[in-house]
């Protein structure tokens, strides 16, 4: 049984991180298991160096207005579509993030998806354990911290993962507590993701189907995050500073907040808006756009409130079988704008990203010319 240490790091003379990480992992109960056990002090594996927690206690910055794109009427009005494309372009070049409203996914579907994630995480641990695995080839997996063994410190988060495309998890593989809504919500998100890629293509001055034809939405994976209340949130993070290793992400978040993006070297809150979805661009979008669009770093603060629940839908190319090479698009290059990244495959990029873990350094640097 994993018995967390309640002694602060600086007063603990002996510390075997590897064995503590393994003991925690072997419980297969995740961070929720620690909360259920009544911990009042963080186990040492979750304590982050103070320099990585900079600005956590004073995160609010009111001088920025987070970009919002209203998709109402986008199909019927050519003038409106041009306006939407302009807003998407501005947000993608400066923030790498924006929120979309009137996107077509019913509010009740989004609320039930959040409820489904809650039901899964709050059921008996013995039921959840059969999904717990470190096998990254599984189409359905429950785990705490994908980089638990490689990161400097663990984060206060558990995740249920499942694949939607191109090879979807079978219905019987999905947890009963959230099976129906996972299937329904994923259909809605797949449609929205393809519509967003059309807008992003146009924002780059390309044919609307350009990014889709590049297979930027060939793969869809969902990460259902559960952030339990934390007894000492000032010592850890919900998710550490990172950028995403895909083309684009559509995020459903609840009303608690905690998501922040790094904008003009300042951490800015992403305000929860009822009915809105957060869209952010990933590393591979920045790579193929040759830095025109930005993959911006973001993080999630730990909190003593909660649980906080979010669902991140990752769009990319087929990691398993695709040998497609991605490089800055020739349509965007010129003598004045030469390629800034070397060609790579999804498999190579993903392998490097996973091995590196969320250590606060962008994986893009490894591929930069």
Automatic annotation (TrEMBL):
GO terms for biological process: coumarin biosynthetic process; response to molecule of fungal origin. GO terms for molecular function: 2-oxoglutarate-dependent dioxygenase activity; L-ascorbic acid binding; metal ion binding. Transmembrane segments: none annotated. Keywords: Iron, Metal-binding, Oxidoreductase, Vitamin C. It comes from the Eukaryota. It comes from Buddleja alternifolia. PROSITE patterns: FE2OG_OXY. This is Fe2OG dioxygenase domain-containing protein. Residues 218-317 form the Fe2OG dioxygenase domain. PANTHER family: 1-AMINOCYCLOPROPANE-1-CARBOXYLATE OXIDASE HOMOLOG 1 (PTHR10209:SF791), OXIDOREDUCTASE, 2OG-FE II OXYGENASE FAMILY PROTEIN (PTHR10209). The keyword Cell inner membrane does not apply. Pfam families: 2OG-FeII_Oxy, DIOX_N. Belongs to the iron/ascorbate-dependent oxidoreductase family.
């Amino acid at each position: 049984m994993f018995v967390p240490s309640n002694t602060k790091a600086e007063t603990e003379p002996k510390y075997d991180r590897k064995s503590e990480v393994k003991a925690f992992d072997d419980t297969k109960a995740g961070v929720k298991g620690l909360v259920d056990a009544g911990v009042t002090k963080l186990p040492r594996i979750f304590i982050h160096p103070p320099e990585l927690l900079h600005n956590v206690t004073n995160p609010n910055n009111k001088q920025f207005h987070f970009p919002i794109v209203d998709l109402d009427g986008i199909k019927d009005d050519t003038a409106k579509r041009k306006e939407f494309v302009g807003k998407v372009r501005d947000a993608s070049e400066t923030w790498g993030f924006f929120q979309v409203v009137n996107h077509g996914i019913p509010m009740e579907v989004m609320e039930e998806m959040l409820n489904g994630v809650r039901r899964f995480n709050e059921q008996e641990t013995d039921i959840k354990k059969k999904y717990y695995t470190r096998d990254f080839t599984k189409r359905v997996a429950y785990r705490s911290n994908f980089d638990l063994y490689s990161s400097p410190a663990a984060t206060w988060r558990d995740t249920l993962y499942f694949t939607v495309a191109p090879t979807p998890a079978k219905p019987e593989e999905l947890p009963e507590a959230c099976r129906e809504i996972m299937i329904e919500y994923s259909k809605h998100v797949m449609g929205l993701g393809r519509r967003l890629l059309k807008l992003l293509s146009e924002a780059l001055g390309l044919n609307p189907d350009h990014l889709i034809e590049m297979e930027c939405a060939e793969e869809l994976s969902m990460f259902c995050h559960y952030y339990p209340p934390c007894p000492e949130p000032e010592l850890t993070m919900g998710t550490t500073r990172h950028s995403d290793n895909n083309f684009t992400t559509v995020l459903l978040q609840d009303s608690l907040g905690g998501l922040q993006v790094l904008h003009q070297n300042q951490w800015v809150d992403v305000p929860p808006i009822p009915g809105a979805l957060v869209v952010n661009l990933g590393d591979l979008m920045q790579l193929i756009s040759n830095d025109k669009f930005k993959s911006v770093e973001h993080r999630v603060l730990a909190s003593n409130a909660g649980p906080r629940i979010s669902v991140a839908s990752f769009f990319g190319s087929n990691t398993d079988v695709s040998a497609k090479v991605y490089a800055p698009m020739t349509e965007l290059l010129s003598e004045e704008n030469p390629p800034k990244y070397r060609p790579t495959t999804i498999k190579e990029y993903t392998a490097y990203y996973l091995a590196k873990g969320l250590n606060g350094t962008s994986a893009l640097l490894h591929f930069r010319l």
